[in-house]
Amino acid sequence: MANHKSAKTRINRNNKRSIINGARRSRVRTFVKKVIAAGLSGDKEAASTALKVAESEMMRAAQKGVFHKNKASRTISRLSQKVKAL
Asked: Whole-prediction pTM value?
């Protein structure tokens, strides 16, 4: 257990941030799954609209530090390739 006030504050802050980051990560994964599901169904319009939403969420998460920006770019690139192939 932390003995200093600043260490206790840091623990509380880390716990709050981990909850927020976990929610953001889960949200991004949900949007990515929607793109994949639309792609599997063969609906190009639904997949492209889902891709737009997923892209903005993914880049926002990368900007906030939840994901590395290269991971976000790589994921978006792969998803857009799949949507283009429809």
From this structure: 0.82
Q: How far is CA 30 from CA 10, 54, 72, in A?
A: 30, 9, 14
Segments in the chain forming alpha helices (H): 5-41, 44-64, 69-84
Q: Cα separation of 13 and 62, whole Å?
A: 20
> What are the tens digits of pLDDT across the range 52-73?
999 999 999 999 999 999 999 9
Tokens of 59: 């880049």
Q: How far is CA 23 from CA 45, 67, 72, in A?
A: 27, 13, 17
List b or e across 21-34, with b for residues whose CB sees 16 or more CB atoms inside 10 angstroms: eeebeebbeebbeb
